[in-house]
Amino acid sequence: MTESRTPLRILAPESAVPRIAAELSRRRFLSLAALAGGTALLAACAPGGSTTSPSSQASGGALEDALSVYTWGDYDSPDVVSAFTADLGPKVTLDSYSSNEELIAKLIAAKGTSGFDIVVPTGVFIPQMIENGLLTKFNKDLLPNLTNMDPTALGRAWDPENEYSVCKAWGTTGFVYDKTIITRELSTWSDFFDAAQNEASGKTSMSDDPAGIIGAYFWANDLDWNTQDADQLEACRKFLVEEIAPHIAAFDSYPGTNAIPQGTQVLMQAWNGDARLGLLESADPDRWQWVLPGPVTELWMDNWAIAAGAPHPEAAHAFIDFSMTPENLMLNLDYIGYNVGGKDMQQGATDAGMELTDLIFFSDAQLAAMKEQELNDSQTVRVEIWNEMKAAAGA
């Protein structure tokens, strides 16, 4: 499943990736955050206003003594974090979220006073975060290690000049199942839903993230997962809420941390790096099967960014730059099990004897089957489906 070791192409060419849809209106974006956060946030910003207070800018001065990072769970090598503090001084605090909607809701509610320095949004959300004043522009003079990043990880459509963001990691969505319980071979998203209603009923988890949950329905049916067709979205809602929700035991974005090692579920939707972590931590890894399902699945890229109002902007730049040294890119690659966008990393991973690299590096054929999410005017409906499905499951 690994690619050849000539220069690593981490993503399909821009021409092969679906274009990002027209940006949501400011009010639509805030409505999305309100749905996700469960609070009325529309009043936080009138059109034409600003959702956040002005943020301080980094100038290359002395580093502050602290740094707050709001990111996805278990997403940074402890060796990198501890080395940063040992070498440069700031003490790092890590907090986690399970979805971009959760991140956005918190930043909008805080109006620039969240206390977070670094955030890690998925690329498709970045244009709206910029428009709504949630991010601070980089001082790229403080990020010399950008030269260590593979060109295909830079200049993405959501931030062509990398003024606000840079690749932290990219990956895909699949699932893991217990072969001692599900003895047939599962290979597609249709297989996933069938097993969830049969052998794995009451022992299935899905990601606590609307993109993967709603996406899986469209991937299973080989439909455009970015559709805005009301009838297709209603069919998705009925299927997930009425047919699948009763069989779901948990909405867990990180089954690799506990559910896979402890065997608490039989079937788990999972991002590839988290699945790899779970297999490596399992006392019986042969019990589990990772599946990159067909006919289509997701491609996403998470990005380092600095929150508006960041109280420690110097330390934030220093940490992002520190994370892009070759040695720290490799440490994070090994720890999180996702491609972190550095140059020529597949060869280094092979040379280092890294395990389960087929869950990190993908072939051209696999990449061709991965499609990026578009953020369009159906997003509010998608978040409503996500919330309704969770309520129906009672998980």
Q: State the end-to-end distance.
A: 35 Å
Summed up, the domain count is 2
β-strand percent reads: 15-25%
CATH homologous superfamily label of the largest domain: Periplasmic binding protein-like II
Question: Care to count the β-strands?
Answer: 11
Please give the share of residues in helix: 25-40%
- Overall SS class: alpha/beta
- Provide the residue-averaged pLDDT: 87
CATH architecture of the largest domain: 3-Layer(aba) Sandwich
Give keywords.
alpha/beta, D-Maltodextrin-Binding Protein, domain 2, 395 residues, 11 strands, globular, 14 helices, 35% helix, 2 domains, disordered N terminus
Structure description:
The protein is an alpha/beta fold and 395 residues long. The protein has 2 domains: 20-170 and 301-357, D-Maltodextrin-Binding Protein, domain 2 (3-Layer(aba) Sandwich), CATH 3.40.190; 171-298 and 374-393, D-Maltodextrin-Binding Protein, domain 2 (3-Layer(aba) Sandwich), CATH 3.40.190. The chain has helices spanning 26-37, 78-88, 100-110, 126-131, 189-196, 210-220, 230-244, 259-262, 272-281, 313-323, 326-336, 345-351, 364-368, 379-393, and strands spanning 66-72, 91-97, 118-119, 135-136, 165-178, 204-206, 248-251, 267-271, 288-291, 297-307, 370-371. Strands 1, 2, 3, 4, 5, 6, 7, 8, 9, 10 and 11 form an 11-stranded mixed sheet that branches. Helix 1 (26-37) runs parallel beside helix 14 and helix 6 (210-220) crosses helix 14. The longest helix has 15 residues, at 230-244. It is globular. The model is unreliable at 1-31 and 38-55 (pLDDT under 50).
